[in-house]
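Margin note from the TA: students keep mixing up input and output lines. Inputs are the sequences; the output is the structure of the whole complex. Example:
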Amino acid sequence: MSTVTVSKKRSTWDGGVSPLNVSYGKMMMWFFLLSDAFTFSGLLVTYGLLRYTHPAYEGDHSKFTFSTEYWPIPEKVYAAVPFFEGVHLPLVFVGIMTFILILSSVTMVLAVEAGHRMDQKDVEKWMLWTILGGIAFLSCQAWEWSHFIHGEPPGTLMPDGTMFMGANLIQNQYGPPAFADLFFFITGFHGFHVFSGVLLNIIIFYQVATGVMQRRGHYEMVEKVGLYWHFVDLVWVFVFTFFYLI
Amino acid sequence: MAHSDNLTPEEAHKATVKRIWTVTGILASVTALEFALAFLMTPGMARNMIFVIMTFIKAFYIVAEFMHLRHEVKALIWSIILPCAFLVWLVIALLTEGSFIFLK
């Protein structure tokens, strides 16, 4: 029998320990979100590129009218609020949507925090609020899309000499065709992420409610869907600035 | 949570929840300020830069506090943050290219 002596110093990366100090699932969620961040950056940078290829509106801000000749001023496009049809309320509705999403992110952290305390009832409560927030956001977006697609009378003169009201992928009353295309792609891709997030939250809520996490001894799945949910909120922060404010 | 060893569970819980609501307050006020500036300031480069800076402030709080990245080990923090540096190049390159093209 020989005594084992330590032959050389082992580094953190030589195995046996977890260098990043997170579980496999959480680390993979982080790297998935990183790749998703690149996808969204691609879409938003494309918005910037296409916006720079079109001339900007040069005239007086208050005399702005829609035209396919130049890029529209966003706050002139998004100025409608449900139940206040015809009233000019720029950015109010999208501001409400932003607050809904931030609040649903807050209820998600509170669910994660309750999970650390193994408090099943609290996790259920906060996850349910998060799901409701997600559904509220999606409903707002459905209304916004519907309003954007149907448009406001009288519409705008198209290059072919006809009047067009509303928006589709080929032409729209707000500006160059690319403007509506980017609206549909960027807010649509984000909305799809919110939709998948709501589905994931519902699945995890069901598992929490049936006591799966309590039996498992930890609520790490809540943290993982939480990461995804915060990411969706993070993307909206950027969409809000680059699509609606600037 | 892990970063509150010398507190009782009850105190740690209170401290964490307080921190969450503080961050909520910051996010809500920055958003409200952005909304106000959209009407108070004349559109232009200065306003856009303020919006971009405020967006990054909000992004920092969401990633650092809500996504808890601030409390992870350094190796994980850098492996998430560093790849995003490539985006800086992408933004500068494509916006410059964009101003060279006129689709008409």
